[in-house]
Give the backbone structure.
Amino acid sequence: MSYQLYSHTLPSATPGTQRILKAHHFGEAGARPKIYFQAGLHADEWPGFLVLNTLIKKLIKADEEGLIKGEIIIVPVCNPIGLGQNFHGYIPGRFAFSDGGGNFNRNWPQLGAKVERIVKDKITGDVEENVQLVREAIREELMALPELTELQGMRKTLLALSMDADEVIDLHCSGEACMHAYVAQEFEEYFTPLLSLMKSKVALSELDTGALSFDETNVSVWRHLKAHYAHLMPWGCRSLTLELRGENDISHELAEQDASALMKYLTYRKVIKGKAPKIDPSEVAFFPLDAMDLVKAPVAGIACFHKELGESVEAGEVIGEVVDVMADDVMQSAYPLIARANGVFFARFQRRLVACGENIAKIAGHEHLAFREIGHLFED
Ligand SMILES: [Zn+2]
């Protein structure tokens, strides 16, 4: 048995309160490949909680059978700060109330330049040695990060658990959506087996999002170093953000389906012993992130969608409407929601009362859209 459960206590933000992160560890520490999973960084996104709970049960069984070869770390509830934002039953969970108040999945520390300063005179022709060198330098830089506030403590702990992983899989969800993923362009081919097993037919391929999200942070050091040392520096870490459908797509059936797919993936990557699953990549499609149309509400009111999630749409097509319930002329109160991309309508708001200008639907397109600005591809 290798299974270990660790509790990490965060700095107390107010007298009498204390939050913890629980990390479930499987396999020998330092065994490879190492895969890290977390869920709920946006604390209003809960499908990953049940998926990881189900995955942990399966891994405990696999561990008892001696099947775990690599290392797996799972933080099923990774943002207890956001989860604590409970206002009479409503949990916003996406933005911090303290420490600058930003989106919990933006502006994570970028360590590339600092790590480069440590390793630059030590890089050799031995690629494996270089990986070790960089991982040690990352650890050193992580130790130096501040942990005065609760949020700093949480970020530092999550990075310390994940930064030396070969793969980082961050579980999120959308309001209402099909299964989809955000994948760095460099990793499209690498993660196709995972997307195929998860039946994720839409994958948004990222360039520079400008978001400095958690999953980008994990690879940012390697991306920075690869720009300088090319083939001497392999990808020491690959990561992606997996969007587990919509907020309310939570059931034991879906969790079982997703956790089983993740177990197959761990077998495929030889983290778990077993027969490798068959991969059918034919249904996985990549769409450039700057070709993703964010459809904005043209007016405040009630949104109604005519198209179903997963349907193909064409530029110029009406996918729904917003009804201006304050219009003087109720006969003329419907404003159309018009697609600007040819592609797949894959995500939309869950709330039907919308503010003017809110992004309420997403269409994955193939052709780059001139109004989408590289470096600012996420607007919230
Ligand atoms: Zn999210």
